[in-house]
Predict the structure.
Amino acid sequence: MYQSIAMPVDLSHTDKLEKALKVTGDLAKLYSSKVYLLAVTASAPSSIAHNLKEFKERLDSYAKAQEGEFGVIFEAVVIPCADPAADMDKSLNHWLHENPVDLVVMASHVPSFKDHIFHSHGSFLASHTDKSILLVR
């Protein structure tokens, strides 16, 4: 049913991804799917990495750890973006349209007042892509 699954990740909040990772890993194992871990980042130094190469190495390491945990292929994909705070949704949406992904699994938060003013990343993708989106709280 699902040959490939994408999961956007934020390496600065990996502690909040456990449920979504479990769902992703379990679905990938069930359907023998490949998982793409997507991370949008700027080329400027950040608290995670000094440059894109180091960021990719950290994401690769995180993907390898998930492979060991779930026994399925996790491929790290870095999506460079000039301003991730402003363009993350568009960058993810562009990547999803350019690549053969059957399902997107995303960690989500409990809605709050600010969600009435600003859309969440999951709601943006659900309304702007033709991919199936599974939000995990």
